[in-house]
Write a structure and sequence with these properties.
By secondary structure, this protein is α+β, with helices and mostly antiparallel strands. It is about 40% helix and about 20% strand. It has two helices and five strands; from the N terminus they run αβββββα. Strands 1, 2, 3, 4 and 5 form a five-stranded antiparallel beta sheet that branches. The protein starts with a helix and ends with a helix. It binds zinc ion.
Length: about 100
């Protein structure tokens, strides 16, 4: 075997060990995987503990969902939840204003 043949073999082995890239640009899962999960977006309390989080999920054999807290929502359900969370955020801001005036 010549040196040229040995180098070609080494390159091919390295390429075979590298997993193919995930087709979803939003996916944060490393390496070879079948279940896709996006980056988690969270709100934390004063101790740094998660109050609520959300992320995109796409498990093998299912359809993409939006995980919010411990529940998985369809896109339409997730939009409804987003409306409810916006209303809650407005309420929290009003409570903060009231707390400053109390
Ligand atoms: Zn993925």
């Amino acid at each position: 075997m010549s040196n040229t043949e040995i180098q070609a073999t080494t390159i091919n082995t390295t390429a075979a060990l590298t997993p193919p890239p995930c087709p979803y640009t939003w996916c944060a899962e490393p390496g070879l995987h079948d279940d896709h999960a996006g980056a988690e977006h969270t709100v934390t309390d004063t101790r740094g503990e998660e109050v609520i989080g959300a992320r995109l999920l796409y498990f093998s054999g299912s359809t993409p969902t939006v995980g919010v807290g411990e529940s998985d929502f369809t896109p339409d359900q997730a939009r409804t939840t987003a409306v409810e969370l916006r209303a809650l955020a407005d309420t929290i801001a009003r409570l903060a204003d009231t707390a400053e005036q109390a």
